[in-house]
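Q: Divalent metal cation transporter, please. Structure only.
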Amino acid sequence: MGQFKLLLKTLGPGLLFASMAIGTSHLVLSTKAGAQYGWIMIIPIILANILKYPFFEFGVRYTSVTENSLIQGYLNLGKKYLWLYGLITLVSVFTILAALYVVTSGLFINLFKIESIGINTIALGLFSFISLLLIIGRYRFLEVSLKLVISILFLALVITTVLVINKGQAIAISGFEPPKIFNELGILFLIGLVGWMPTAVEASGWVSMWSMEKLKSMAVKPTLKEALNEFNLGYSLTALLAVFFLIIGWMTLYGTATELSGNAVLFADQVVTLFTSHIGDWAYFLIAIAAFATMFSTCMTAHDAVSRVSLDILSKLYPNCKKLGSKSAFAFTVIFLALINWVVISVFSGNMANLVALATFVSFVMAPLIGWMNLKTVTGSDFPKQYRPSGLLQILSYLGMIFLTGFAVYYCWIVI
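A: Structure for Divalent metal cation transporter:
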C-alpha cells in the first residue's frame, strides 16, 4: 500500500507522456490499422512500443540522475547535436500542434453538432482556451487535470472495447478480400504507424522537461527507481490503449469497405457514428466524449511540451539571456505557438495529410540519430556509472536503432 501511495505521489511525467501519445497515433492510426488490415497489425504496434521504449526511458533516466533536461545532455555531446534537435523542434512548432488541433476541432464540431461554425473558428477557440489553462495553471494544473481525463478515457475505452468484443465483429461485405500489407500502399501505412507509435522519438525531450518540472514540485527528490516506475506505468498504459483502439477499429470496421476520411470533421463523424451503429446509439455520447478527451489532452500536453522545449533550447543556445527562463517567456511562447499554428491551419484548410507530411519526413529520418543521442547521454563518461542502463536495455536500444534506420531508409526511398 505504501508503494502504491508513493507511485501516486510521483505520478506525472509518465501520465503526461500517455496523454500526449494517445492522440493521432492511437485514435487515428491504431483505429485505421484495425479497420483496414485487421488484428495482424497488433504485431507492429507492440514491436514499435517495445523497440522505442529505451529512447524515452533514457530521457527520464538522464533527468532523474542529473536534474538537467535531456537538451542539456545534447549540448554536452556537442553544440551541433543541440542545433539538430532545435531544427527538428522548429519543424514541430509549425506542424504538430496544427495537426492535433485540427483533429480536435473536428471532434468538437461532431460532438456538439455545430457544422455551421468553421473549423478555423473552433481551432482558434481551443487555442485560446488551452493557452489560458497552460499559462494560469502551468505544470501543476496539467498534471492534476490529466489524472481525471486519463481515468475517464481509460474507463470509456475499457467499456467500449468489452462491448465491441461482446457484440462480435462487423459482417464483411460480399467478396471482401483483405488488403495486402506488403505493397507500396501498405508499407507506407505501416511506416506511418510505426513512426508515430507510441509517438515520435524526439518527444523523449518532452518527457525530460516534464520530469524537470516534477522535480521542482516535490519536496523530496524521488529515486531513479521511483521515477522509472512512474514512467513505466504511463508507457504501459499507452501501449495498452493502442491495442484497445486497434480492437475497436478491427471489430467495427474491418471488412466493411469503409474508407476513413483524411478530413478532420468527416473522420470524427465516421469514427463516432460507425462505432455507435455497431454498438448502439445509446453509446454515442460515451464514444464521442472519449475521442474528444483523447485529443484535447493530447493538444494540451503537446502545446505545453513544445513551449518548454523551445525555451530550453533557446536558453542553451543563448545562456546570457536570463529572461528565457521566466514565467512571462513561457506565457509568450504558449501564445506565439497558438497564433502561428492557427495561421498554419487557416492556410492548409484543415487537411491533416498536408500538415503532417513534413513533420513525418523529418521525424522518421532523424529518429535513429535521436535514439543514438539519447543512448550517448546516459552511457557517456559524464554520466554516473551506477545509474547507466543495463546491458539488456542497451542491446534493446541498438535493436531499436536498427529497426528505425530500416524504416527511415525505406521511407526515404519511397518518398524521394
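A: Brief note, in case it's useful. Residues 75 and 399 are 25 Å apart (CA to CA).
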